[in-house]
Amino acid sequence: MITDSSDIVNRRILVVDDNAAIHEDFQKILGDDSQAQSASDLTLSAAESLLFGGNTAVTTRPTFQIDCALQGQQGVHCAEKAVANGRPYAMAFVDMRMPPGWDGLETIERLWAVDSDLQVVICSAHSDYDWSDVIERLGHSDQLLVLKKPFEPIEVLQCASALTRKWQHEQKLRRHVESLERTILLRTEGLETANRQLRHLATHDALTGLPNRILLDDRLAQAIAHADRDDQQFAVLVLDLDRFKVINDSFGHHAGDELLNEVARRLSGLVRNIDTVARVGGDEFVLVLGPASERAAAKQIGQLAMTALQAPVRISGVDIHVSPSIGIAFYPADATTAGSLIARADAAMYCAKQQGRGNLQCFEPGMDTTTRERVQLESDLHHALKLRQFEVFYQPKADAASGILHSAEALIRWRHPERGLVLPAQFIPLAEECGLINSIGEWVLREACRQCKTWQRDGLPPLRVAVNVAASQFRQSHLVEIVRRALDDANLEARYLELELTESAVMTNPEESAAILEQLSRMGVLVSVDDFGTGYSSMSYLRRFPIDKLKIDRSFIKELTTRAEDASIVQAIISLAHGLQLKVVAEGVETAEQLEFLKSLGCDQYQGFHYSKPLPAAAFSELVRDQQQAEDRLSDEIAASTHSKLAAYR
After folding, report:
1. 618-647 in b/e burial notation, b at 16+ Cβ within 10 A?
2. What pLDDT sits at residue 427?
3. For residue 424, what pLDDT is reported?
4. Helix 34-52 and helix 153-203: axis angle, to 10°?
């Protein structure tokens, strides 16, 4: 073993000669003999001057450590011991003839068998072997020199100095080469690992590790080939998570990723090794069930998938429930190409969603027509904003006791050039899925502020306009700036703007929500909690956050007068809100009986078809003017009777 030092110094020399007197001569020439050293140094210095020219300064020559052996066997034993101790010899002087044992050539052969790095000088008389004999036995070796007897001390010293340095340089070079080889090996292994990872990433989903669309296409091609060869069928299941975007928007993308990973794990546990589970979209998975999959077996796998996903997934301390909609198509009965097979299964999946979500449908003729219509609607939706096809309707909010109109809720409508007026329930979920909801929501905000200011300029009483904010909008880092810019561009005072948020949006990240709501409230913007009672129903945020109003969900108003439970819930909400100094708005009021009951409970405001359906801006303006003629002009104080919670303290 050789030490891992950058400067390897080895002056260990082995002398193998059957004459003990020769050993003494080597000790005098190479050993620690000061007189001999001085004379030899002068001689060596003079020789170097002759060889290299110029004056060479006399330097103290190195001292060599000499070990001697009288026979080849003894010398080989010394070499073995030196190698075993990690202190090998740099070179050896070997006599050519050492009767009665091994001769010099055999000794050298055995020494090199023990230590192949050993540099050797053959000490040979003129009558010994011819050089051709040496070459025949030992080959052309750069580790071998011949020193003819009798020799001069300078010859021995030069051989020792040159060959020990040569040994040292070779060791250093070898270590350098080995280091380079290790570096190359590590880098090669790293490149191979990186290539494997790249190949894996090219064919697998980075989040779940499942096959992606590229690998899915390959698996489908193989399945089709096997099915054609063996005259069999196979099934493709397309699975989409219901309301995943709501979960993603409410809890954040990290929670959504955790959910997707858990879904991938559960689905993978349902299928065989010959089947494929792939993720091909945000929350869309595809299962390819191997050849000979009967229709009943495929439907059973679909039912098992629905059952497996029923168990809640606990994320951030909350049990999240998710349900899938599943569509199934069969090869070759439903389609004969991979693309059309996926499309047919996808069409069946959308039919499953339309039938209430959380169910399974096998493809039937005509289902793909619905899918094509949906794709067309999504395409039209991308152009609707640019083509100014959206407009805002306004539904009045009236005082429950007096009937005086205080404000209005802005509700978007899509006036499609071919479909006519499209209601929000038909396109808002689609806008959320394709990522357009934030742009549409910002447009509604700006348009509502502009219209509100226009009414004021036209002489209408100062009204407040309420705008719904989607969960994804609320979590935008620049929401406050968007609101401020919309108000500034319309030159509208903040007290005439109200933002309606759902409980789930507010409670996704309480600390972040509190900071955003405080900024909005300090601006003077009112904040309402929409659909109260249908989300978290956590009372803690009502006192923590600067909230101004609660809107009772229409589901409680619908059977307010016929179900005692709903009446009790509404009464409790009103009592709770008033105890916290909050206003209460009931939505979905359709009958006089419902309104009278709300009055008796002390509800502050209401909206619904009993007062008016949502109206275009011009029709809403006429409604306000008609009321204005019937009543005295609405004072600014009445219109602003509800202030934002924090702005009131300024």
Report:
1. eebbebbeebeeeeeebeeeebbebebbbb
2. 87
3. 87
4. 70
Q: Looking at the DSSP assignment, which residues form a beta bridge with residue 279?
A: 285
Asked if residue 89 lies in contact with residue 54, where contact means CB atoms within 8 angstroms, the answer is no
Is 408 in a helix, a strand, or coil?
A: strand
pLDDT of the residue at 167: 93
Give the pLDDT confidence score for residue 5 in this predicted structure: 46
Main-chain phi, psi angles of 523, to 5 degrees: -70, -25
The reported pTM is 0.54
Beta strand 234-241 with 284-289: parallel, antiparallel or unpaired? antiparallel
Residue 466 zone, left/alpha/beta (φ > 0; ψ -120 to 50; rest): beta
Q: Which helix (H) or strand (E) segment is 91 a member of?
A: strand 91-95
Tell me the C-alpha distance between 75 and 93, whole Å.
10
Strands, E, within 98-248: which ranges? 119-124, 144-148, 234-241
Which of 394, 494, 388, 527 shows the shortest CA–CA distance to 451? 394
pLDDT digits (tens, 9 = 90+) for 476-514: 878 999 999 999 999 999 999 999 988 777 777 778 888
Residue keyed to tokens 């809403």: 620
Extract the runs of DSSP E, i.e. beta strands, from 333-389: 360-362
pLDDT for res 373: 74
Going from the C-alpha of 308 to that of each of 44, 326, 366, the distances in angstroms are: 90, 13, 30
Quote the tokens at residue 486.
């919309």
pLDDT given at position 61: 66
> Tokens 């949006």 — which residue?
505
Whole-number pLDDT of residue 266: 94
Two tokens at 545? 């956050």
The reported pLDDT for the residue numbered 635 is 46
- Give the rounded percent of residues in the chain with a pLDDT score beyond 90: 46
**pLDDT < 50 regions, the chain:** 1-6, 34-36, 633-635, 637-641, 648-650
Looking at the DSSP bridge assignments, the partners of residue 605 are 399, 585
Angle, CA of 232, 237 and 240, to the nearest 5°: 175
CA distance 384 to 400: 37
3-state class percentages of the chain: helix first, strand second, coil last, to nearest 5? 50, 20, 30
Q: Would you say the C-alpha torsion 188, 189, 194, 197 has a positive or negative sign?
A: positive
CB 189 within 8 A of CB 183: no
The answer to whether 526 touches 642, Cβ cutoff 8 Å, is yes
Q: Which residue has the tokens 């955790």?
A: 258
Peptide bond into 100 cis (omega under 30): yes
Q: What is the pLDDT of residue 534?
A: 66
